[in-house]
Design goal:
Blueprint (H helix, E strand, L loop, with lengths): L1 H10 L2 E6 L5 H16 L3 E6 L16 E3 L10 E7 L10 H8 E8 L15 E2 L6 H11 L6 H14 L10 H10 L6 H9 L4 H11 L3 E3 L4 E7 H6 L8 H7 L7 E7 L4 E8 L6 H6 L3 E3 L2 E7 L2 H21 L1
Parallel strand pairs: 1-2, 1-4, 2-3, 4-5, 5-6, 8-9
Antiparallel strand pairs: 7-8, 9-10, 10-12, 11-12
Length: about 325
């Protein structure tokens, strides 16, 4: 399957790279690593993302290679190929995806998320490998398959992808493979501690105050095995924070000893919520997310949902209950 992607890149001269909206370290690292690699073999490459990059990723692109569809960008020119990283669902690339379909001869998704049972299908030449711990590992394989020599910018970007999605190797699905890739990358990226600090250790005072307030509102159920939290976009805005500043909350909740699963709702308006689901591994949460129109990884999934918070919370509680009861009985 990866040979198809390599062939598509070899046949293309003009290539557009992008990732899902509300981009994260995996998507950004993958596209930036690929950008630097393809420039080395003479390709005409540009990155055009749906929306802006959180400031904590500034270290990744000192030369500001990324343009944004929701901001100032050069008109999209006809391209031979579009590579879309870290999603296989075109809806997460809208409204940019409509322009990609118009202007790009071939579209390839490079991703490690399961394909949704109900939803749009990725293009036929796409590479979807759910055994990869990060999309960055797939980008690494493509770059190696193209016989492109690594350098510091490529290694920095791909290492960022890998450590972000594995949370510093806490969530590694393929055992030694992720560590082997990281070891190779670290021959070129000599300051991994700076990457770790930028991704996981640069909390502002405002972010800590927000997190303290939010964590004090956690609701626990089923003998503290399930934790549910509601936050709002309004409170983030009032404290001068961005959506990205709320990402760490659910991972902090999962550090609680008794918690086997967690759900975090972010309320964007009266009836629109972004739901994040996590499990420590005793049971997958993907099916719950898919039943609500979302998807993701077995133990880290999400969905955009509509309704009243009490009703949505009850749906999640009920879906989690049968799994947690089995754990308690074992």
């Amino acid at each position: 399957m990866i040979d198809k992607v390599i062939g598509a890149i070899q046949d293309a001269q003009t290539i557009l790279l992008t990732t899902h909206r509300q981009c994260d370290g995996d998507g950004l690292g993958s596209e930036l690593g690929m950008y630097h690699a393809l420039k080395k073999i003479g390709k005409t490459v540009r990155i055009l993302n749906v929306d802006g990059t959180p400031s904590k990723y500034d270290f990744l692109e000192p030369d500001k290679h990324i343009q944004y569809f929701d901001g100032s960008y050069d008109p999209i020119q006809d391209s031979d190929l579009a590579l879309i990283f870290d999603t296989n669902d075109k809806r997460l690339v809208e409204p940019l995806y409509q322009q990609i379909e118009t202007h790009c001869k071939k579209i390839v998704f490079v991703d490690h998320h399961p394909i949704l049972k109900e939803g749009p299908r990725p293009t036929s030449d796409s590479i979807i490998n759910v055994s990869a711990a990060s999309t960055g590992e797939l980008a690494y394989d493509i770059i190696m398959g193209l016989n492109i020599e690594l350098d510091q910018p490529i290694a920095c970007a791909l290492y960022t992808s890998l450590v972000f999605d594995t949370q510093l190797f806490r969530y590694v699905r393929n055992s030694h493979r992720s560590h082997e890739v990281a070891a190779h990358l670290l021959k070129y990226e000599k300051q991994p501690a700076k990457i770790h600090q930028a991704l996981f250790g640069n909390f502002t005072a405002a972010k800590l105050r927000f997190m303290a307030q939010a964590l004090s509102r956690i609701e626990f159920y089923f003998d503290d095995q399930l934790a549910i939290l509601l936050i709002t976009s309004k409170e983030l805005k009032e404290m001068g924070l961005k959506i990205d500043d709320s990402r760490d909350l659910i991972d902090m909740i999962m550090n609680i000893e008794t918690v086997e699963a967690a759900a975090m709702f972010r309320q964007d308006n009266e009836t629109d919520f972004k739901l994040s689901l996590r499990s420590k591994g005793q049971f997958p949460v993907t099916a719950i997310a898919e039943s609500l129109g979302g998807g993701g990884h077995p133990f880290a999934s999400g969905a955009s949902v509509k309704g009243s918070y009490p009703d949505l919370r009850e749906k999640v509680k009920s879906a989690m209950a049968k799994h947690l009861e089995l754990i308690s009985a074992s």
